[in-house]
Amino acid sequence: MADAFSSLVEAFRNVGVARAYGAPVLVGGEELVPVALVSFGFGGGGDSGTSGAGSSTGAGGAEGGGGGGFVLPLGAYTKNAQGRVVFRANTLTVLLGLVPVVCAVGMSVRGVLKTVSAGRR
Question: How far apart are the first and last CA of the chain?
Fold first, then answer.
C-alpha cells in the first residue's frame, strides 16, 4: 500500500496550477482561458495485524485508502474592448459562493436581535 500511496503523491505533486488554468479556447472568435478552483485529497491507513485489545481484525492486518476531489469553474480570462486582459466571473459560481456568507450574516443578525430583545425585557 505504501508504494501505491507514494505513486499517487508523485502523480499529483504539481497538478494544482496545471488544472486551475485550462488551455486557451476560441469561442466566437474570442480567446478565453478558463479558471477553476481545484481541490483533491487522498488518505489511507492500515492495521499492523497484531492481536490484542486495540485490534479489530484479530490475527490479520487490514489496509484501506481513498480519495476524492472537485473542480469549481470560477470564470475565464479574456480581453476587453481596449485589448486589456480581464477576468469574467462565472455568475452562478459567485452566487453559490455567496450562499454561506449570506447564511452566516443572517444567523449573526438573528443572534444580535435576540440579544437586544432579551435585554429590553
Answer: 64
Per-residue model confidence (pLDDT) at position 81: 87
Please compute the mean of the pLDDT values over residues 79-87 and round it to a whole number: 91
Element housing 111 (H / E): helix 91-119
pTM listed for this prediction: 0.53
CA atoms within 13 A on the CB side of 110: 6
Mean pLDDT of 33-54: 74
CA dihedral 102, 105, 106, 108 (to 10 degrees): 160
**How far apart are the C-alpha atoms of 32 and 19, rounded to whole Å?**
15
Q: Which three cell numbers stand for residue 79?
A: 480581453
- CA distance linking residue 28 with residue 35, whole number of Å: 18
Residue 25 CB partners (closer than 8 Å, separation 6+): 31, 32, 34
How confident is residue 89, by pLDDT bands cut at 50, 70 and 90? very high
* C-alpha–C-alpha distance, residues 40 and 42, integer Å: 7
